[in-house]
Amino acid sequence: MTQRFKAVLIRKDGDTQTVEDVELTQADLMDGDVTVAVSHSTVNYKDGLAITGRSPVVRKFPMIPGIDLAGVVQESANPAFKPGDKVLLNGYGLSENHYGGYSQLARVKADWLVPLPGAFTPAQAMAIGTAGYTAMLCVLALEDARVTPANGPVLITGASGGVGSVAVALLSRLGYRVFASTGRTEEEPYLKALGAAEVIPRAELAGDPRPLAKERWAGVVDSVGSKTLANAIASTQYGGAVAACGLAQGLDLPVSVAPFILRGISLLGIESVYMRKERRIQAWQRLAGDLDIKKLDSMTKTIGLSEVRSAATDILAGKVRGRLVVDLSK
Prior knowledge:
Helix content is 29%, strand content 28%. By secondary structure, the chain is an alpha/beta fold. It has 2 domains: 4-116 and 299-327, Quinone Oxidoreductase, Chain A, domain 1, CATH 3.90.180.10; 130-269, Rossmann fold (3-Layer(aba) Sandwich). The strands form 3 sheets. Strands 3, 4, 5, 6, 7, 14 and 15 form a 7-stranded mixed sheet that branches. Strands 10-9-8-11-12-13 form a 6-stranded parallel sheet, sandwiched between helices.
């Protein structure tokens, strides 16, 4: 009997993009050596861009969106995995040129998969998702740049979003004094519950940047870009480092060279989609040890597959706090 499963599918006809709930069979899946029964996915900012078509994330149509997935191996032609193994996947072109996680069944390459850490359920792994995994990559980059709690506080921009929320929880637990920047000051209790010491209104960092400003923090995790990132750099302490991973405010960076040549600031670009597997595993192992599960649960909301389209619009509008998990059984 042919196995049928539910999915979200993006189609494009000329300049018109449509998104619909569909039912597919295994014959519809793309090539790969491992078939995963997907139980959970998540909604990231990039998913919002793909589903709304606001940015050309999708390179091939039709496309099943969803840059993350977690589930159980159903079939495997690769000895690295066997049926019953719990796995997760972040990036590797899902939702761009390979069918993604908004599907109850996925066929992917074994090299893309990471074993699910025993500390997490599939739902918790997707509560972390690419956003939380990226936050951990930022933390690792700051540590590699020798930014320690003793050096001074760290700034997190877009703090009430997915990357920001996990970064606040991680860095505060690691002993850093965290300054959380957000455009939603009503989220101050939420951010302080995650571990933020101070909450900074977004407007304080969103204006035209000066070449250099007062030194305020030793490190930065930025998911916003543009003028916010430029202001964050201008106020970074001598020898500090800035991990940049997002573009919510824009792709531009109106920054002077002054912070780099006068203060020795390092700007660290964080790329998560094709990150080497060893670093991925390191990030997930650190998440298993350093992320407070109770804080993760407090920042997470669960939705069904049919709610993905409205969630995509909400996340681009800045209406989503923390993390959204997609339960594919709903």
